[in-house]
Amino acid sequence: MLQPVPTADSSAEVAEWWRLVDLCLPSHDDCGAITFTASDAEHIEADWDRWLTGVFLPVLHPSFAALQEAATLQDIDALLAGDRALGAALSAEAARTSLVAGRHLLLSFDPPQGAKLLEKMREAAAMEKSFGHLATVFAVRSRIFHLPFFQAAGALLLAECVLGADAAGLTLPADRSVALLQRALERVSALPAAQLMAV
């Protein structure tokens, strides 16, 4: 299924997806745009498609899958390496905003009780100023809450969409948010199965 709880009501569907965003990105009120930015209401679909093609599918999607797998294995070294690779693959501006949002989430919010990997990540971030991209922290938090890849990726997509629109002064109605999210999830689900699995 393309949504956590099937519903014909766009508002209810966005609320269900946003519940997952809240688990993985409790700092969403403070972080602003991450790597997606909208230009204006008229062109948001084109902006979204460009971002999906230029950033999400080639960079964020495979990185996020690998980061979530490293989180499943509790492999801090793989997370550090994946975070560095992600930062190098993003444009300078996207890497900057991703790092600001991720480090804020990592360092300003106490990890859930027993989340040893997040504690290790906080220590690494305190020592290395270039560590802690949002997708890395989001992937680890999604594994803490046992979210399957597709739901975690959907929550990341919705956060990128809503926060990128909000930074441009746009408040997306629920039906438009759902349409943009579904558009992205259809692209993800069309990828070959081998690309959906982290190696």
- Unreliable segments of 5+ consecutive residues: 1-6, 194-199
Helix content: over 70%
In terms of structural class, how would the helical and strand content be classed? Answer: mainly alpha
Approximately how much beta-strand content do the residues carry?
Answer: under 5%
Distance between the termini: 24 Å
User: Order of SSEs, N→C?
Assistant: HHHHHHHHHH
- Main sheet, how many strands, which sense, barrel? none
Number of strands: 0
Instruction: Provide a count of the helices.
Output: 10
Average pLDDT, all residues:
89
- What's the number of structural domains? 1
Tell me, briefly, the overall form: globular
Q: Which value, in Å, is the CA radius of gyration?
A: 16 Å
How would you portray this structure in words?
The protein is mainly α. Helices cover 71% and strands 0% of the residues. It has one domain (49-190). Helix 1 packs across helix 8, helix 3 (44-72) runs antiparallel to helix 4 and helix 3 (44-72) packs across helix 9. It is globular, with a radius of gyration of 16 Å. The two termini are 24 Å apart.
Layout of secondary structure:
Layout: H1 10-24, H2 28-31, H3 44-72, H4 76-89, H5 92-108, H6 116-127, H7 134-144, H8 149-167, H9 174-189, H10 193-196
Helix pairs in contact: 1-8, 1-9, 3-4, 3-7, 3-8, 3-9, 4-5, 5-7, 8-9
